[in-house]
Each structure stands twice: as C-alpha cells, then as structure tokens.
Design goal:
The structure holds two protein chains of two kinds. Chain A is mostly helical. Chain A is built from 13 helices and four strands. In chain A, strand 1 and strand 2 form a beta hairpin. In chain B, the strands form four sheets. In chain B, strands 1-2 form a two-stranded antiparallel sheet. In chain B, strands 3-6 form a two-stranded antiparallel ribbon. Chain B is globular, with a radius of gyration of 24 Å. The N and C termini of chain B lie far apart (51 Å). Classes of the chains: A mainly alpha, B mainly alpha.
C-alpha cells in the first residue's frame, strides 16, 4: 500500500478526521458549555455579556462540524452511511437543537420584551445542554459497537436503540467536560459581577466533571472491557490516558491560581487527549459491529479510493493553514473582555 | 407511507426550504460589496449606512441558511445511506472542498462583517465583506459540481457489485468540469443575484413609495436596477445554454421539460401546455418546430422523445416537470421585460414618479424566488428515476434499515421547526424594514429601551 512519510493514506485520513473532530469539540465545546451555563445567570446584563462572549465566533466554530462531517463522508463513505443511518434519531435531534440554538442566539436580541428574551434564553440554555449530551450518546454507541451487518450496512432496528446506560453516561460526561471548558472560556471574557459569579460556579463544574468522568471511566474498564484492550496491550499506550489525567488534574490548580488562559489551554488539551484515547482504542477500526466482530468496519474497508484520499490530503495541506489563519484573525479581532456596543446581540 | 417516500418528501422539503436563503445571501452579498466599495472609495457616508442596513438583513438570511444547510449534509448519511456509499468517493471530495475552501472563509469573516464595524478599519472591513461574499460563491461552486455530477457523471468508474458498488474518481478535473457544471453554475449564480437584487429593489421601491429614506433609496435603486438588468439578460443566454446541455446529455429530461413524445421527429416548442401521461400526448400553444430550432438551429432536426425510453426510465412526474420548466421561463421573460422597462423609465427620468411601477417592483421580489425553486424542481424531478443519471436509481438509494416511523418523527420535527423559523424570519425581516435604513441596529439594546428591559428582567 502506498504511503506518505511511512504512513498509509487511510491512516492519514483517520488522523485528519480525528483532528477535525477534536478541533470541533474544543471550539464548539466552549460555546456549548457557555450556553449550558446561561440559565444560571439571572441578570439581563450578564446574559448579554455571556452571549456576546461567543457572538462573533460560534458560527465559525460550527463550520468545523461541517468540515468534519464532510471529511468523514469523503474519506470513509461506508462509515458515514452506516453510522448516520444507525444513529438516525440522535442525529435528527442534534440537528433540531442546533437550529433552535442558532435561532435563539440570533433572535433573542431582536426584541426588547422580557418574555421574548426569557423564552429564547430557555431555548438557548436547553439546546446548549442537549447538544453535548447527544454527541456523547453517539460516541458511547460508537465505543460499544453498533448493529453492523454482513454488507457493512446498519441492520439494527428500533426507535430507541441508541439509548442505553453507557451512552447516557457518555452524554453526561461530555456535558460536564464542555461546561467546565465553557466556564473557563467565560472567565477569560468577563469581568466584575459575572466574573465573580463564575469563580463560584466553576467549582461546581470541576466537581461535576471529575465525578462523571470517574464513573464513566470505571464503568468502561469493568463493563465495556473490549474498549480498553489496546491500552492494556502495551505500556507505551498508557502515555496518552496518563497525559489526559495529568491535564485534567492541572485544571483545578490553574483555576485556583487564576491563570485562566492556561486553564483554557489545558481544558482544550483534555478534550484532545480524550479523542486521542478514543482513536487509539478504535484504530484501525472505525465502527465496531455488535453482531459479529468480522463485520467490524476498519478504515481499510471503509476508505475511499487512493486517488480521492490523495486529492483530499492536498486540499487539507492548502486549506488547513488558510482556515487556521482566518480563525486566528477573528479571535485576534475580538480578543479581550467583552464590551457591549451597538453591534452586539 | 414507505421509508423511501418519506425520505424523498423529507429531503425535498428540507432542501426547498434551505434554498430560500443561500441565493438571497449570495445576491445580497454582491450588493453589499458594491455599496461598501463605493463607501470606501468615495467616503460617502450614505453608502456606509446602506451597507450596514443590508448586512443586517444578510445576517438574518445567512444564519438560517447555515443552520438548514447542515441538515442537508447529515441527511445524505441518515436517509440516503446507499447513495452516500455510492457517491462518497466522488461527491465527498467536492463536499470536503466546500467545507475547507468556502465555508470556513464565509463563517470566519462573518464575525468581522457583522460585529467588526467599530473594531477594524473600513478597508479591513471591506476585505471581510468580500471574504464572506466569495465564500458563499465558492460554496455554490462545490455543491453545484456535486449535483452536476449526479446529472452528467464524468471522470469516474464503478467498482464492486450490488450494495458494495460505488463510483470512484479516475479524473478529478473531469469530475469537477463534467459536461453540465459550467452551464449550471452560471445559471445558479445569476438566479442568486436576481433573488438578491430583486429583494433590494423591492425594499427601496417600498421606501420611495412611503416617502421614507427617499434619497438614499433612489441611489441604491439605480445601482441595483443596473445590476439586475444585466443579470436578467445574461440569464437568458445561460438558460438557453443549459437547455442545450440537457438536450445533449439528458435527453429524457429535455423530452419531459418540453413534453416531447415521438421518437425521432422535429419538435415544437410549447409556450403553454398540458402533458397527458396516460395518452402520451401534449396539447397547448406551440411554436412549430421551435424546439428543434432552439436546440440545433435547424427547424427539421429530430429531437429524442419520451417514447424512446422504457417506461421505467422516464421521469415519473412528466407534467410537473413540464409546468415547472415553463413557469421558470415565463418568470424569466417577465423579469427581462420589467428590468428593461425600468431602465427606459429611469433614462427618461420618470421611474420614481410612477407609483404603479414601483409597486410592481415591490411585489416582484417573490418572482426570482419562485423561478429558482421551480428551476430546481425541473432539474431534480427531470433527472428521475435516477439519483445519479443512468447509474443509480433513487428508489435504490435510501437507508433500508431506517424505519418509516423514524422518518415520520423527523419529518414532523422539521416541519414544525421550519414553520417556526419561517414565521420568525418574516416577522424579523419586516421589523428590520420598518426600522429603516439607519446606522444602529434597532435591536434596542442601547439607550432607554435597554434600561427598561433591564429593569423588567431583573
């Protein structure tokens, strides 16, 4: 098989998709997280500041989902088709909440009425909570395995198949991680009263995350033991989860020292390490079959032609730096604490 | 209803709703770039105000366009799993290119476009406006490339059999520049420019009638009318070129569009008509041998009729394709007449005195929207029964193990959500238009109103 720098093309694309998904989780993660806290803020002024903290960037963050989805579709169409039809209901709910959230951000500020705004606040807060939970549920299903049949298509049945305790636990864990991540982001963007309130809320966020993370990890090791096979197989693989634990442990320390910029870097790293661990566990597979392990879809079974993968690697090589450049430009333009003006939400 | 029918309904509904917004964004984007460039060059504050006003409307259409667009991407996987596997290798790379090159450009600069007026210099802001506009143009390219490939597949070969069969790229550029891409992308662009320009014309005509913002509206109207006139005329050529392409590459579709039944005879061109599928006839007002002339510049050149194709290879809804196609042409001709008449009146200096004409422009904003819709219905229904022309049937392409109840659930969800979205869109659009062309957003976040809100909420 043809390789680039000693790594074959499907593996390269596996890394690209992994990087895009982690990028998406880090970026949309903090604005989902910020939204999940929204209803905890009681004052109109605080809610507006919190909303405007993500105002100029949330749309750009969502682009990573489109690109990540497109990358999965293009590189591993079999997985795209099978995963998306298997996770029909969670993905449809995800889309609906995504739309509701987008319109609540856009429309909230368009009327001055208190009732109008409160209703949109509820829509915004609830959808910001639901979205990470649904993402976690999908991830949980991927880790447990999906009803993949002989022709590598989805053969399961049932409206509620996606709902099971493990998937739900993953959902709660994803929510807690994003809430922690989002709270740190808001601490970076706010001052005065809202900032003071957040310094209290973040303690709860840390506890919520550590508890749900620990329970899910234990449950994974005991009941979904096949997931941890790779890590157990070689001590070298312990490095990634270890780094993950260290970066989690670092967050409370940095928060107490009020070094929020570093705390944000470490909560981002935590997300990246978690995706790293998931990728390590799955590789070279993408979708585990819960019916028969010989139906499991590996990256080699799922990959597009070599030609397509090469074209797309070229696109990533050219387009990647461009995307990073204007992302950096936007974040630079809107750096610092939020100041409301006549363009704000 | 079966999963297949429900999946078709859901896709048609969600894509039709989605397509209200992207053409508006592209068209408004063009005018924002024009207005803001005039401001940056001349320093005329009026054009700054105009650019800001239309940016606010743009933000509304763009936001809904993005949100409803993600749905389309997901639906390929959720509802059309067989299709996704089949076209992934080809379609996927176009979709990935859209994400990397177009969508990121748009959304990256969108923040600066909307929130950056006070943060960056005018020149830099103009760059952001152009960035968003170009992003939306690129994004149209890639999605039209993918759709054109479904109409006229090229640069690929089929690998595997049965459920495992799929198209793989053999020549990337042949895939990108497949026979219909260029015709269709220009047709789509012009359609988008028309929907944007006619919205702008409509709003400014309304202001002139109501005596609000009259001076600024007249300036905007003149510039926009010039752009619109150019676009309607170009659209005539682009449309005729597109039809020729369809005739050459998708003969069954052309036959349905024009209601041609007989196998190899010169064909008439209908101005109005009705297609009877059972009796296999078309009746109506026709230019004798008109279609032969239009396609081949030869009155006696034969045209392939529907009877040349097996029943199962003909589009299912022939009369609908015929009617949609003819409605599109009727609207196109009307718009040409209207813009040229408007230009003549403008030259005579009488345009703004004729209230009835201004009212026509107010109402005309709906016409390009309808034309865009029925044009796409023609393209997509005319392609049936194929999802990839001549290769993969729509009836074989859906997700077999998604149940009808699941699709019903999501269809109801989307129907309710989009209804809400549309009501809010119209409500807010109206509100912004009532607020008028000003520098501030009218969102009542500043000043006394905001303090009142503050007091009420706390």
């Amino acid at each position: 098989m043809e390789t680039l720098l000693g790594i074959d093309y499907p593996t390269w694309w596996f890394l690209v998709v992994g990087a895009l998904f982690s990028g998406y989780a880090i970026l949309d993660g903090f604005d989902f997280g910020a939204g999940a806290w929204h209803l905890f803020f009681r004052k109109e002024q605080s809610r507006r500041i919190a909303l405007n903290a993500i105002g100029p960037v949330w749309d750009g963050n969502e682009v990573w989902l489109v690109i990540g989805g497109g990358a999965l579709f293009a590189g591993f169409p079999v997985v795209y088709a099978t995963l998306f039809s298997a996770m029909y209901i969670p993905f449809m709910l995800f889309l609906c909440f995504l739309i509701l959230r987008a319109i609540s951000i856009e429309f909230r500020s368009k009327e001055p009425g208190a009732i109008w705004r409160r209703n949109w606040d509820v829509v915004y807060g609830v959808s910001s909570i639901a979205l990470p939970v649904l993402l976690g549920i999908v991830l949980g299903n991927v880790l447990e395995g999906i009803a993949v049949g002989k022709e590598l298509n989805y053969v399961g049945n049932g409206f509620f198949e996606f709902l099971n305790p493990y998937a739900l636990m993953m959902g709660v864990t994803a929510l807690s991680l994003f809430m922690l991540h989002g709270a740190i982001y808001l601490l970076l963007k706010t001052e005065d009263r809202l900032f003071a309130k957040l310094t209290i809320l973040i303690k709860g966020a840390i506890v919520f995350f550590v508890v749900s993370f620990s329970i899910t990890t234990l449950y994974t090791l005991i009941y979904v033991s096949k997931v941890a096979e790779h890590v157990k197989s070689s001590p070298v693989f312990f490095i990634l989860p270890l780094l993950g634990f260290l970066s989690i442990a670092n967050i409370p320390r940095l928060v107490i020292k009020r070094r929020f910029r570093w705390a944000f870097i470490f909560s981002s790293l935590t997300i990246a390490f978690m995706f790293g661990v998931v990728a390590l566990e799955l590789y070279p597979n993408l979708l585990l079959s819960s019916i028969d392990s010989s139906y499991t879809i590996s990256i080699y079974k799922a990959a597009s032609s070599l030609k397509t993968l090469k074209i797309m690697m070229l696109m990533v090589a050219i387009g990647g730096p461009l995307v990073l450049t204007y992302t950096a430009f936007v974040y630079r333009t809107f750096r610092g604490k939020v100041k409301l003006d006549n363009t704000s939400y | 209803m079966s999963t297949e029918i429900l999946a078709r309904i859901q896709f048609a509904f969600t894509v039709a709703f989605h397509y209200i917004y992207p053409p508006l964004s592209i068209g408004l984007g063009l005018l924002m770039v024009i207005f803001e460039s005039i401001y940056v060059r001349t320093g005329n504050k009026e054009f700054h105000t105009l650019a800001r006003f239309w940016t606010r409307i743009f933000a509304l259409t763009f936001g809904i366009g993005v949100a409803t667009g993600i749905v389309m991407e997901f639906e390929f996987g959720t509802n059309w799993a067989v299709y996704s596997r089949y076209v992934g290798d080809v379609f996927g790379s176009a979709l990935a290119a859209e994400g990397v090159f177009a969508f990121a450009l748009e959304s990256g600069f969108l923040g600066v476009l909307i929130f950056g007026w006070n943060r960056v210099r005018p020149g830099v802001h103009l760059v952001a406006t152009i960035g968003v506009f170009l992003g939306s143009m690129f994004s149209a390219i890639w999605i039209v490339v993918a759709n054109s490939w479904q109409q006229t597949p090229a640069g690929y070969h089929i690998v595997g059999k049965g459920l495992e069969a799929r198209a793989e790229i053999t020549d990337f550029w042949a895939m990108v520049f497949n026979p219909s891409t260029l015709d269709r992308i220009s047709h789509v662009y012009l359609g988008a420019f028309l929907s944007g320009t006619f919205l702008v014309l409509s709003v400014h005509a309304y202001y002139i009638i109501k005596g609000k913002h009259v001076d600024i509206s007249k300036k905007a109207f003149k510039i926009t009318l010039a752009v619109a006139t150019l676009c309607t005329l170009l659209q005539l050529f682009s449309g005729s070129k597109s039809a020729e392409g369809v005739g050459a590459h998708q003969p069954a579709k052309l036959a349905a569009m024009e209601g041609v039944w007989e196998e190899h005879q010169p064909a008439d061109m209908y101005l109005l008509g009705w297609v009877n599928k059972e009796r296999q006839t078309t009746t109506g007002l026709a230019v004798p041998n008109g279609l032969s002339y239009l396609m081949y510049r030869d009155m006696n050149h034969p045209v392939t009729g529907l009877k040349s194709f097996d029943k199962e290879d003909r589009p299912g809804q022939i009369n609908a394709v015929f009617q949609f196609y003819h409605l599109m042409i009727l609207i196109g001709m009307t718009l040409i007449g209207l813009t040229i008449f408007g230009m003549i009146q403008l030259r005579r200096g009488k345009l703004f005195e004729q209230r009835w004409l201004l009212w026509v422009f107010v109402i005309a904003a709906i016409l390009p929207q309808i034309a865009n819709k029925v044009g796409w219905y023609t393209a997509e229904m005319g392609r049936q029964p194929w999802v990839v022309y001549g290769q993969l049937r729509t009836g074989a392409a859906f997700s077999k193990h998604v149940t009808a109840s699941q699709v019903t659930f999501s269809l109801i969800l989307f129907s309710l959500l989009y209804l809400l979205l549309f009501i809010l869109f119209v409500y807010l659009l109206n509100k912004k238009l009532q607020h008028g062309i000003t520098e501030d957003d009218g969102d009542m976040n500043t000043g006394v109103r905001a303090e009142i809100t503050e007091t009420i909420v706390n």
